Amino acid sequence: MKRHRFLIxxxxxxxxxxxxxxxxxxxxxxxxxxxxxxxxxxxxxxxxTISEDRKLYSVSPQGEMRWQFxxxxxxxxxxxxxxxNKIIISNTKGLLYLLDLNGNIIWTYKLSSPLRGDILVSPxxxxxxxxxxxxxxxxxxxxQLSFSIQLPxxxxxSPVMDYDGTMYISLNNKQLLxxxxxxxxxxxxxxxxxxxxxxxxxxxxxxxxxxxGSLTAIGKGGEILWSHKISDNNLPLKQLFIxxxxxxxxxxxxxxxxxxxxxxxIIKKTSLMSDVSGYGSLSDSGILYIPTSDYQIKAISLxxxxxxxxxxxxxxxxxxxxPGPIIVAGGSDWILYAFKGEPSTFTSWSVLxxxxxxxxxxxxxxxxxxxxxxxxxNPQYQYYKKLIHSTGDTGKWQVLSYIEETLQDxxxxxxxxxxxxxxxxxxxxxxxxxxxxxKRIDNDFPLTRGKAYELLGVxxxxxxxxxxxxxxxxxxxxxxxxxxxxxxxxxxxxxDGGISRSISQAIKRNTENDQIAQSGIQAFRQIVAYxxxxxxxxxxxxxxxxxxxxxxxxxRALALSLFEEIxxxxxxxxx
Length: 575
Description:
The chain is of the alpha+beta class. 30% of the residues lie in helices and 28% in strands.
């Protein structure tokens, strides 16, 4: 009887293990070689990855092959997307490509030497490349050299970048460098080991794991906040993750998982029971998807419960969670896989590949959301906020004096969102002129420029209008272009057709960009409402091109609706 019970238990146990090991993929796409890069997810959910057969593959969310882009030389093992959804990729000869989402070449740039590690994209859209000659090459969005930096030692892993443009790069001599967006060194410190993983958490705190299994927290100014031994086996911390509730998760080479508070206190530990073979991912709900050395992908909760596994005949290289929600994985069996999984807004890779576009930027649930959270705990900000909303003008001018001091600070860009937030509040009171925000327009940070454009729209006088028209003619970042167009639309008064022309030209320069097109249509509608008619013939031409052009159905419908409304009401264009 006992023997029968044992046999039944044994069969049930093996049946459970078998069902886990045969978790069913949603689809498979066979490539011509080993998958080299972590998959990258585009705005429509399309997947981009590199294979050893020297091809870049584009696959739809349903697993259908969209296109392939071949190179005569092998590809380097990294892809990234820009903020305006262009693909950046380089071959092993150092030839850098910028492609559109259909695989067409926009430009190429020949690097002085092949790249090492990941491609980073700054908030300003600049492309940061680390080369095998231990230099950093920075390329502008239009494919021109911006500047280069020679590093004092070889990087231990790929550099990472925060949302304010601050770059961190760890070197093999146990030095950690912090650079600003122009490549100027902010600080350097000695760290307790060679860095094997990096991630940026709340309030800009940098967490780094080392080859000896320790975890160190470093403040924005380079101060070491704490350092603890994490790995029980003194093994390298292969990956670090930040959960949605700001807990730290470390993963060492042996598969040991540690969950920690932001202070470094260990909350719990669990294990994958096998070594790690590649880079994994964390979903918003706290499920880890990790490739292991026994040729599996394991889905494990932070409580240590194995939810499912998938077994292949070759090791997996990487797993990527997506908003889909699907999980995309590639490995040595030449196959790109997709599985049903928990959604993830952003994915924390070990070297801060923190979003599914692999720009290398840290994720803060939105840049200015992060600063708003910071302001809540900042007594100086709250003090000035009260002065702004106090009766009379004295308090408001006191705040302006503080802002003028901020703009003369050598590290002014670090305080810029702070100052801009205050300026916008004052602008709503109608107390300042456009000269106060010019420095915020003339900087390398699209998010800051976007807030400055918002400020100009709030003030709304003729000087602001002219600033915005000039800015729109030179702006290249999609989010900043949208902010600038929205500000122009909110001003509305277009006595000479200059606003309509600048918006029409921006739409034309950014063909097939639905986000810019939709903001332009809304601004046109506001201009027509304010002035009683279109203010320039280019507005009608632009609307006609939009509803007949290569845009999403919703964009075309918006354009057609406004066009027909103008025609129906027989609204003539100003001469």
